[in-house]
Design goal:
Elements: H1 23-26, E1 30-34, H2 39-51, E2 54-59, H3 68-71, E3 79-82, H4 88-98, E4 102-105, H5 112-117, H6 119-139, E5 145-149, H7 175-193, H8 200-203, E6 206-212, E7 214-216, H9 226-236, E8 240-242, E9 248-253, H10 255-271, E10 278-281, E11 288-290, H11 291-302, E12 308-310, H12 327-333, H13 341-356, H14 361-373
Helix pairs in contact: 2-14, 4-6, 6-7, 11-13, 13-14
């Protein structure tokens, strides 16, 4: 069923100038979001707030200083709980108190290189944290849809030039990637065992997983990520050290997969088990670019002060070539990317230059969300 094409489409996103995400659906919905203090979680929290949802976030403190969570005052329009997904009892009680209609799970240890040094933390967060979340879902009445966000790196990477489809084998070379493959297997097991689509009338919960590419955007200050490393180097006046300029990744603005998660959550809520599968959300094939192309485009867009050089120090293994096939999401959900890689880089530069100039980053972030939603 992983690669099945579902006929119903809750939102017609194939038409230009039609809002990608349905505001009428989300207004008043109670959403439980883990990982809201992170980069993707901060953007999604603000988008949900803009849509009129009642958002409860559960996460550790913001992982970086500065952070999007603090710079854009993400907590201002939601109920923010600082907690660890590895604490199953606290997570369960937080979810019971929130009484959500929809659960979106973003909390994770998200870095490949960090996972080499901290494998136990990576697996305990990304695998057992998910188990705790799904146990909390089982204990909480009223939930209708659950979206577990994993990664494009969940697939067994064979370094081939075409995109991975949802029915490809799970794998993962490094602890981070492998933990995301494990998370997909956990999701499938819980779906089969406790949220079986064939027994939907009994439990009423539809659960899906979402696999996105390399997300970039304003407000990401994580270590060992290309764009944040580049922006930090610009700030200090030093060239950024690049590990693998020939590595190809499916680059996309953070709002691209977030729109997919929202559309998927709506489809699960309104249509149920037909969408209870794994889903890819990645850019158009033309936007799967080598690292060197991204660096050159960013330096040109930023202007004076941006430069890079090759890091000659031996590095741990990272995939060289990785793309996603998103045909299923386009056909069955009506989802498709809206910003190409050039527009994405322009939005990143716009966001960070505004931040450097002391702009209201809450309003700036909401403005970019509104522009994307109505592109």
């Amino acid at each position: 069923m992983e690669n099945a094409v579902v006929n119903a489409s809750p939102v017609n996103a194939s038409l230009v100038n039609i809002p990608l995400v349905n505001p009428r659906f989300w207004c008043g919905k109670r959403v439980f979001l883990t990982g809201h203090t992170g980069f993707k979680g901060g953007w999604l929290s603000l988008w949900l707030q803009q849509l009129g949802a009642e958002v409860t976030g559960y996460a550790l403190d913001a992982p970086t200083k500065p952070s999007l969570f603090e710079a854009a005052f993400v907590a201002r329009g939601m109920h923010s709980i600082i907690g660890d997904v590895r604490d199953g009892e606290r997570l369960k009680h937080a979810m019971l108190d929130a009484r959500p209609d929809i659960v979106i799970h973003l909390a994770a240890q998200p870095l490949v290189r960090y996972s080499y040094d901290n494998p136990v933390e990576t697996y305990s967060t990304n695998v057992m944290g998910l188990v705790h979340l799904l146990e909390a879902v089982r204990a909480t009445p009223g939930i209708k849809s659950v979206v577990n966000v994993t990664s494009d790196k969940c697939y067994e990477n064979r370094e081939w030039p075409w995109g991975y489809r949802e029915n490809e084998a799970m794998g993962g070379y490094d602890p981070y990637s492998n933990s995301k493959g494990c998370a997909e297997l956990v999701t499938a097991s819980y779906r089969n065992s406790y949220f079986n689509p064939e027994k939907y009338a009994q439990h009423g919960i539809a659960i899906a997983s979402a696999r996105a590419g390399n997300v970039i955007g304003g407000g990401d200050w994580a270590l060992d990520r290309l764009i944040p490393d580049m922006l930090r180097a610009i700030g200090t006046g030093n060239p950024v050290q690049i590990r693998n300029p020939n590595a190809v990744r499916p680059w996309q603005h953070v709002l691209e997969p977030l729109s997919g998660y929202l559309m998927l959550a709506e489809a699960l809520h309104t249509t149920g088990p037909h969408y209870a599968q794994g889903w890819n959300f990645g850019p158009h094939d033309l936007d799967a670019k080598p690292v060197e192309w991204i660096i050159e485009r960013l330096t040109q867009t930023w202007g004076e002060g941006a430069a890079w050089e090759l890091d000659g120090v031996p590095q741990p293994h990272e995939a060289t070539y990785l793309k996603l096939d998103c045909s299923k999401a386009r056909a069955a959900l009506g989802w498709q990317p809206r910003w190409n890689i050039g527009q994405t880089i322009e939005k990143i530069v716009e966001w960070h230059k505004a931040c450097d100039e002391g702009a209201d980053m809450h309003q700036m972030t909401l403005a970019q969300i509104n522009t994307y939603q109505n592109t």
